[in-house]
Amino acid sequence: MNKNWLFTSLILFALAILLGAFGAHGLKLLVNSSDLAVFEVAVRYQFYAAFFLMGYSWVESSETLNKPLVPAFFFLGWFLFSGSLYGIVACHALGLNAVFLGPITPLGGVLMVFSVLWLVVVLGKLRQK
């Protein structure tokens, strides 16, 4: 088991719970319903990232699966995806223009998909052995 990725996943879980509670109770006083929906998507994908990284930390215990870039790319993808969405909502709450963050979101999504597919390929190769 990779304890670093397990620890990271648990931190992401805790932060997702805290941010979700903030979104449900405090944020709705600061932003409109559209921004609140964007924030909820960011929290949801943070949960997905936590689940992925937790699962990876268990799968990696196989000696033949030593692909540290898979979770690193996934984490970066989550950071860009959810981070840009959090940033957009924060900018709107502060009355700032967040147009520069828009192109970052899909890049993060692509990195997450790439990481998952990369892991599928790696596990497929292991299965054939």
What does this entry show, briefly?
The chain is mostly helical and 129 residues long. 78% of the residues lie in helices and 0% in strands. The protein has 4 helices and no strands.
Provide the fold topology:
Blueprint: H1 3-25, H2 33-59, H3 69-93, H4 104-128
Helix pairs in contact: 1-2, 2-3, 3-4
What order do the helices and strands follow? HHHH
**How far is the N terminus from the C terminus?**
21 Å
The strand count comes to 0
Radius of gyration: 16 Å
Mean of all residue-level pLDDT scores: 91
Measured by DSSP, the beta-strand proportion falls in under 5%
What's the helix count? 4
Q: What is the domain total for the residues?
A: 1
Tags for this model:
0% strand; 129 residues; 4 helices; mainly alpha; elongated
